[in-house]
Amino acid sequence: MAHGSKSEPSAARVPREVAHSGAKLPDMAESVVLDGLDRGLLHALQLDGRIPFARVAEVLGVSETTVARRYKRLRAMAGLRVVGAVNGVLFGRSAWTLRLRCTPDVALPLAKALAKRPDVSWVHVMSGGAEISCHAQLPPGEEILLLEKLPRSGRVLGVSAHSVLSAFSLPSDWSGLRFLGEEQVSRLRPPESSVARVEVDGADQALLELLAGDGRMPYAELAGRTKLGESTVRRRLDILRHNGVVSYQVDIPAAVLGFGTQARLWMTVPPHALTEVGRRLAEHEETSFVAATTGPTNLVAVVACRDSGEFYRYLTERVGALRKITSLETAVLMRTVKQG
To answer: Residue 296 is part of a domain; what is its CATH number?
Structure first.
């Protein structure tokens, strides 16, 4: 329901048990309460991560100062980030999803080491504390060399690397962030970008590195830190975005939105039914990522549910209804070390 309507949904409060069941939140996040304005702002940022606050304010019917203040609060108390994500495919990289088995004492240090790499995202420590999952955009052959560059790699007991063949649903489209009405969305949605090869020089690389840390870094600050003119920065970012080199993604723990249980699913589906099942899973509001992959299982998904009871019902009722899934393995995400 859109913000400003007569009957807004009740505000969402982060449950206290979240600290033990999912993403690591800022110290004050347990008491964060999201109202309609917060949810509207988050949805607006999902549509356009660098949208001017003035435009958001106009659509939500509040002042620009109020929007800026809410954004600052969400950053400080709820772990909100907007990150600039680079499309590695344009640079000859391939998308991979990796699964590492290790001894429990090194799981978190390994996960943190992976999280420091700019080509690695969505780093999770899974149930039992002896497995790590992550996504990576790597040059050919790098998926194995990746481990050799990590500390304590000798304590890794096994690794499964799955090449992503086709993505049916991506975290940037996750329905858990949606809140605004269709008319509001149409006013906020940016023009569609194309996907084309574009020359990326050293100055562009410097901008992309800064945007990976803060996708909403002001143009003036970007200009100052790269020694470029502000007009040049604006022009280069417009080109990079229009040609699909960079997109802006909202990074906020699902638990802040009331989803206390997240899990990764590995499924096996006959090849002839892979596209059908992948698309049907992508239609589920619980899924934030669905992709066909190589490997012993050929379909992977990440889901977010309110609690373990809802997760059980999702598996038995919605996934169970997809009869062409012949095997299923699940693992609850115990800690999120890095998202986008």
So the answer is: 3.30.70.3460
Three state DSSP letters for the chain: CCCCCCCCCCCEECCHHHHHCCCCCCCCHHHCEECHHHHHHHHHHHHCCCCCHHHHHHHHCCCHHHHHHHHHHHHHHHCCEEEEEECHHHHCCEEEEEEEEECHHHHHHHHHHHHCCCCEEEEEEECCCCEEEEEEEECCCHHHHHHHCCCCHHHEEEEEEEEEEEEEECHHHCHHHCCCCHHHHHHHCCCCCCCCCCCCCHHHHHHHHHHHHCCCCCHHHHHHHHCCCHHHHHHHHHHHHHCCCEEEEEECCHHHHCCCEEEEEEEECCHHHHHHHHHHHHCCCCEEEEEEECCCCCEEEEEEECCHHHHHHHHHHHHCCCCCCCEEEEEEEEEEEECC
Q: Examine the domain organization and report whether 93 and 47 are in the same domain.
A: no
| Residues 170 and 279 both lie in one domain | yes
- The tens digit of pLDDT for each residue in 262-278 reads 999 999 999 999 999 99
Across 299-324, average pLDDT: 97
Query: Which residue range forms the structural domain that includes residue 161?
Result: 88-174+253-338
Condensed to tens digits (0 to 9), the pLDDT of residues 67-91 reads 999 999 999 999 999 999 988 888 8
pLDDT at site 1:
37
**Predicted local distance difference test score (pLDDT) of residue 88:** 86
pTM: 0.83
Task: For residues 97-102, give the mean pLDDT.
Answer: 90
Question: Both 293 and 314 in a single domain?
Answer: yes
Are both 105 and 58 inside the same structural domain? no
